C-alpha cells in the first residue's frame, strides 16, 4: 500500500446532503449495480416518547438500511399512519463499502403530529413554502415561509433580525460572556468583571434544501475594551419550512487554564421591540410539569378599583384588553399610578430550586415573585401584537442557569438566556489539590496505590474542554395561550424525535452484535431482568445523587463507598466515570434493543457530556480524553480510549447531529498526538523517543480508537486517507508474529501500517478490548471479509479466557492471570459463533455466569433503602454495583445473547 504525507488531514470534509460521488468507497462496483439485500417496503416510525407531541418545532433523524438494498441517492416519502403525506427532506449520512446507502437522514418541519408514520423509498412531497436561503457578501437571509432570519457575516451581531410578516420580532442577537479575575473565595472576595461579546469569524451555509437550512457561525468572544479574546464558539442555526422558530446549537471551548479567568456569566441575548401598551405586554416563564408563571408588565388584577372581569380575564389570558377609554373612570384616570414591572428574572441555581423575581427598572429593588423546584427553561416576552419565546434545554439539569427579561416597559425589551447564571458563583475550573508532593513518576504511581488517581503536574487542566447547549426561539404573532406555552415547554425540555423500531435497526445489520429483547425462556428472562435492573438503577442514581450541573450532567460515578453510603466522588480515580470500560456503548446498545426513551435520553446526555467535557478540543492535549477522576479533566492519563469515536457514532447516525459529526471528524488524525504524548511514559522500562515511522501505538485500546474514527469517516464518505489507514492496520496486524498478542509492535504514522523491530514478545492487557474494540472488530469483519484479520481477531477471542496450556500451545507461553473474565466471555462467544464451536459456546456461558471481575452467581439483585441519619437524602443502595462491572456485564449479556443465545444453558 503506498504511503502518503504525514499531516493532519482535517481538510477532508463530510458535506451534509452531498450526492454519493464516492469512487474510493469501493474499487469493485457502485451502489447502482450491486444490490445484495432487499430493502423493506416501508419502515414504521414513531415518536421516541410515544404518542403525538403537541408541538413539533421541526425534527431530524436517521434510519439505517441493509447492505446493497438502496442506492446512495435514494429518495423517500413520508406518510402518517392515516395516509397523509408529510413533506420530508432526505440526504445520505452513511454508506456501505459497496457504495449503497447505509444511513439516511430525514427532516420534517412543524406539522400536526400523528402517532405513527411510514417511510418508504420513492419520491416524497415538497413543502408548500420551502425554505429559501439568500446570501451575499454581508448577510445570509433565511425565509421559512413564516419567519425571516438575517445573519451577518461579520461583526459582533450573531442575528441581525428575526421578522414575521414584515414585522421585526427580535434582533441585535449577540453572545455574552462576563469574565472575572477571581473565584471570589471567602467573605471578602472582589472580582473585577469585564464584558465580552461574540465576534463572528466565519459564516457557512451547510445545508439549504426545501425543508431544512443549517448555518454554522464560528468566532470568539472579544472584550468590549482592549480586544482581548477567549472562549471560541461554534453556533449552528436550524430553520425548517413553515417554522416560526429557530433552533440554536451553541458550543464553546474553554481555552484558558482556569487560574486567572473565571466565567461569571455566559449567555445569548436578543432585543425585542415592544409595540403594545404596557398592560397588553406579557411575561411568561415555564415551571415544572407544565406549570406556568404568567404576569403582565402593568398588572390590572388585584387593584383596589376593578377594571372589570372582561379586562382582567383578557390580560390573564394574554388576549387584547378592551380599549382603555372604556375602562371605569376610577381605573382609567389612574393607570399611570400602576407600576410597570419591566425586569423579570428566573434563576435556577441548583437542580432542586428556582426563584422568580421582578423589579420596576434598574436602580430599584427586586421583589420575589415565586419559587419552584425545576423550571422547564421556557420564557416569553411580548404582547398582543407579537413577541419572542425562548427556551434552553436541560435547564435545571445543567444549573446554574437563568432567564432574564429587562426593560419590558420600554420600547425595546432585552432577553438573555444564561447558560451560566451571573447570579451564581463564578465557574471555577482550578485543579482540586496542590499535587501532594507528587513530583516524580514514582510518587505518582504510588498515589495510584492509595487513591487510584493518576496525577502529574500541569495535566489537571481544563484548557480545551467544551460544552454544547441547545436553545429554541419562537417569533410569535401574539402572546400564546397557556396550553400552547405548555406544549412549547415540553418541546424545549424533550425535543420530539422520530425513531425506527429495534426490529428495523437490527434487520439493517448496523452496530455489530445485538438483538432485540427476547424473554422467551426463563434463562433469557433472568438476564433481561438484570439488564433492566442495571439501567433503572443508574437512571435512579442520577436523580437520587443529583448528578447534575453544567459540567457534570450526563456522566455517572465510577465506584461506590458503602461505608459512607455515597459514591466515591472525592477519591481520586474512583469518582466520575468518563466513559470508562464502555459505559456509553452499553447504554446505546440497551436503547437499540429496547427502544426505551429513557435509555435514549440518558445515553444522549452522556454523549453530549463525554464528547465535550471529557475530551480536549484545543490546547496541549487536543483530541485526547481524560481518564476517570474527581474532576472530569483532572487525571493525567490523556488517552484516545476516552476520546474514541466509538462512544459517539450511535448518536450521530440516529440523529444526524452536526456537532457530534464535527467531534468525530476531528479524531481522524488523532494518531498525531502520539508524537507529543506517550501514554505509557510512566511505566516504560525502555528508552523511547517517538519516531513517526516507529510509534508505540498498541493494537488494543490505541489502535481501536484510531480505527473506529477512520471507519466512521469512511462510512460517512469523508477523507479517503481514513480508509487507507484503516485498511493498513487491518492488513498488517495479522502479519505480526502473534497478531493482537504481539509485544513491541511499531506504527508508521505516514501509512498506518504496523511493523516489528528486532525485539518482540507476547503482551496483553485486560483493557485492550473493552473500550470499543470488540464492537469495532465485529463490524470490520462483516464489512471487509478479510480472512487474515478475522483469523487474528478470533485468535485473540479464543485465547484470552483459555487455559494456560491452550495459550502456551499456541503462543509459546501463557498469558498469566488476566482480569475481566466475565467481560471477555463475549469474545469467547464471538469465536464460538464465527467458528460454529459448541465447546466455545459452553465455555462462554460458563465465563459469563462465573462472574470473574464482574457480577457473580450469588448476588442479590436488589436495592436496599437507606434513609434517616445514615444518609443525607433517602437513597436506594446496591453496594455490589460498580460502573466498570455494570457496563461490561451489560455488553457481555447483550452480545452473548445475540451470538449464542440459542446455546444459553437452562
From TrEMBL:
Stretches assigned to the PcRGLX/YetA-like N-terminal RIFT barrel domain: 42-120
Sequence ranges assigned to domain PcRGLX/YetA-like C-terminal alpha/alpha toroid in this UniProt record: 495-904
One Pfam family hit: PcRGLX_2nd
Residue span(s) of domain PcRGLX/YetA-like central beta-sandwich: 131-489
PANTHER family from the UniProt entry: CONCANAVALIN A-LIKE LECTIN/GLUCANASE, TAT PATHWAY SIGNAL SEQUENCE DOMAIN PROTEIN
Name of the protein described by the UniProt record: Tat pathway signal sequence domain protein
Organism listed in the record: Actinoalloteichus fjordicus
Lineage: Bacteria, Bacillati, Actinomycetota, Actinomycetes, Pseudonocardiales
Amino acid at each position: 500500500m503506498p504511503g502518503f504525507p504525514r499531516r493532519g488531514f482535517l481538510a477532508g470534509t463530510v458535506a451534509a446532503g452531498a450526492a454519493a460521488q464516492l469512487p474510493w468507497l469501493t474499487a469493485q462496483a457502485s451502489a447502482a449495480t450491486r444490490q445484495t439485500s432487499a430493502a423493506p417496503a416501508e419502515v414504521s416510525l414513531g415518536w421516541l416518547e410515544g404518542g403525538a407531541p403537541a408541538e413539533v418545532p421541526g425534527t431530524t433523524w436517521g434510519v439505517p438500511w441493509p447492505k446493497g438494498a438502496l442506492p446512495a441517492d435514494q429518495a423517500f416519502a413520508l406518510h402518517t399512519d392515516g395516509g397523509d403525506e408529510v413533506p420530508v427532506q432526505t440526504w445520505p449520512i452513511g454508506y456501505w463499502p459497496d457504495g449503497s446507502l447505509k444511513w439516511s437522514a430525514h427532516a420534517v418541519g412543524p406539522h400536526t403530529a400523528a402517532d405513527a408514520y411510514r417511510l418508504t423509498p420513492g419520491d416524497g412531497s415538497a413543502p408548500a413554502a420551502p425554505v429559501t436561503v439568500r446570501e451575499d457578501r454581508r448577510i445570509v437571509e433565511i425565509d421559512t415561509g413564516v419567519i425571516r432570519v438575517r445573519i451577518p457575516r461579520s461583526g459582533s451581531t450573531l442575528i441581525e433580525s428575526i421578522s414575521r410578516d414584515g414585522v421585526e420580532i427580535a434582533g441585535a442577537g449577540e453572545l455574552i460572556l462576563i469574565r472575572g479575575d477571581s473565584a471570589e473565595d471567602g467573605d471578602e472576595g472582589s472580582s473585577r468583571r469585564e464584558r465580552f461579546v461574540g465576534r463572528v469569524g466565519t459564516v457557512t451555509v451547510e445545508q439549504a434544501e426545501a425543508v431544512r437550512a443549517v448555518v454554522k457561525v464560528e468566532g470568539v468572544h472579544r472584550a468590549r475594551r482592549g480586544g482581548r479574546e477567549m472562549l471560541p464558539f461554534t453556533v449552528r442555526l436550524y430553520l425548517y419550512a413553515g417554522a416560526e422558530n429557530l433552533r440554536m446549537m451553541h458550543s464553546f471551548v474553554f481555552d484558558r487554564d482556569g487560574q486567572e479567568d473565571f466565567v461569571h456569566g455566559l449567555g445569548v441575548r436578543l432585543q425585542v421591540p415592544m409595540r403594545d401598551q404596557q398592560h397588553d405586554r406579557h411575561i411568561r416563564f415555564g415551571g415544572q410539569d407544565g406549570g406556568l408563571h404568567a404576569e403582565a408588565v402593568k398588572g390590572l388584577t388585584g387593584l383596589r378599583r376593578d377594571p372589570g372581569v372582561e379586562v382582567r380575564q383578557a390580560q390573564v389570558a394574554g388576549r387584547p384588553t378592551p380599549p382603555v377609554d372604556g375602562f371605569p373612570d376610577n381605573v382609567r384616570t389612574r393607570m399611570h399610578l400602576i407600576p410597570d414591572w419591566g425586569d423579570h428574572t428566573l434563576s435556577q441555581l441548583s437542580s432542586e430550586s428556582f426563584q422568580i423575581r421582578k423589579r420596576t427598572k434598574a436602580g430599584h429593588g427586586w421583589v420575589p415573585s415565586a419559587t419552584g423546584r425545576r423550571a422547564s427553561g421556557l420564557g416569553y416576552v411580548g404582547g398582543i401584537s407579537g413577541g419572542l419565546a425562548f427556551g434552553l434545554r436541560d435547564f435545571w439539569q445543567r444549573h446554574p442557569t437563568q432567564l432574564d427579561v429587562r426593560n419590558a416597559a420600554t420600547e425595546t425589551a432585552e432577553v438573555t438566556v444564561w447558560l451560566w447564571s451571573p447570579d451564581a458563583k463564578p465557574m471555577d475550573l482550578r485543579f482540586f489539590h496542590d499535587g501532594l508532593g507528587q513530583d516524580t513518576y514514582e510518587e505518582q504511581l504510588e498515589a495510584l496505590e492509595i487513591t487510584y488517581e493518576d496525577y502529574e503536574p500541569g495535566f489537571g487542566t481544563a484548557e480545551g474542554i467544551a460544552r454544547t447547549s441547545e436553545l429554541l426561539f419562537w417569533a410569535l404573532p401574539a402572546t400564546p395561550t397557556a396550553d400552547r406555552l405548555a406544549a412549547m415547554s415540553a418541546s424545549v425540555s424533550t425535543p420530539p424525535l422520530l425513531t425506527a423500531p429495534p426490529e428495523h435497526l437490527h434487520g439493517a445489520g448496523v452496530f455489530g452484535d445485538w438483538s432485540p429483547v427476547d424473554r422467551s425462556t426463563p434463562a433469557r428472562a433472568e438476564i433481561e431482568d438484570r439488564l433492566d435492573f442495571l439501567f433503572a438503577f443508574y437512571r435512579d442514581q442520577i436523580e437520587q445523587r443529583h448528578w447534575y450541573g453544567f459540567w457534570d450532567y450526563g456522566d455517572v460515578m465510577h465506584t461506590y463507598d458503602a461505608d459512607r453510603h455515597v459514591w466515591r466522588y472525592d477519591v481520586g480515580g474512583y469518582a466520575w466515570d468518563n466513559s470508562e470500560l464502555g459505559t456509553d456503548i452499553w447504554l446505546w446498545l440497551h436503547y437499540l434493543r429496547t427502544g426505551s426513551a429513557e435509555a435514549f435520553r440518558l445515553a444522549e446526555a452522556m454523549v453530549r457530556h463525554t464528547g465535550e467535557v471529557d475530551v480536549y478540543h484545543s490546547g496541549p492535549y487536543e483530541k485526547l480524553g481524560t481518564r476517570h477522576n474527581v474532576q472530569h479533566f483532572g487525571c493525567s492519563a490523556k488517552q484516545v480510549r476516552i476520546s474514541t469515536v466509538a462512544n459517539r457514532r450511535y448518536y450521530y447516525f440516529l440523529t444526524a447531529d452536526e456537532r457530534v459529526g464535527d467531534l468525530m471528524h476531528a479524531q481522524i488524525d488523532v494518531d498525531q498526538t502520539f508524537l507529543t504524548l506517550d501514554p505509557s511514559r510512566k511505566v516504560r522500562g525502555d528508552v523511547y523517543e517517538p519516531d513517526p515511522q516507529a510509534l508505540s501505538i498498541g493494537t488494543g485500546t490505541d489502535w481501536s480508537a484510531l480505527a473506529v474514527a477512520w471507519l466512521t469517516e469512511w462510512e460517512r464518505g469523508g477523507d479517503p486517507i481514513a480508509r487507507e489507514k484503516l485498511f493498513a492496520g487491518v492488513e498488517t496486524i495479522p502479519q505480526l508474529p502473534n497478531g493482537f498478542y504481539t509485544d513491541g509492535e511499531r506504527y508508521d504514522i505516514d501509512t498506518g501500517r504496523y511493523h516489528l523491530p528486532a525485539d518482540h514478545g507476547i503482551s496483553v492487557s485486560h483493557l485492550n478490548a473493552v473500550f470499543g474494540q470488540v464492537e469495532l472488530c465485529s463490524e470490520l469483519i462483516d464489512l471487509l471479509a478479510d480472512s487474515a484479520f478475522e483469523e487474528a481477531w478470533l485468535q485473540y477471542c479464543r485465547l484470552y479466557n483459555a487455559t494456560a496450556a491452550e495459550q502456551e500451545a499456541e503462543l509459546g507461553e501463557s498469558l498469566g492471570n488476566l482480569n475481566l473474565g466475565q467481560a471477555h466471555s463475549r469474545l469467547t462467544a464471538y469465536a464460538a459463533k464465527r467458528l460454529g464451536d459448541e465447546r466455545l459456546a459452553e465455555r462462554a456461558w460458563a465465563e459469563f455466569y462465573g462472574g470473574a471481575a464482574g457480577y457473580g452467581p450469588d448476588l442479590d439483585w436488589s436495592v436496599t433503602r437507606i434513609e434517616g441519619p445514615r444518609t443525607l437524602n433517602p437513597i436506594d443502595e446496591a453496594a455490589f454495583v460498580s460502573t466498570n462491572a455494570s457496563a461490561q456485564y451489560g455488553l457481555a449479556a447483550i452480545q452473548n445473547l445475540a451470538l449464542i443465545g440459542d446455546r444459553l444453558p437452562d
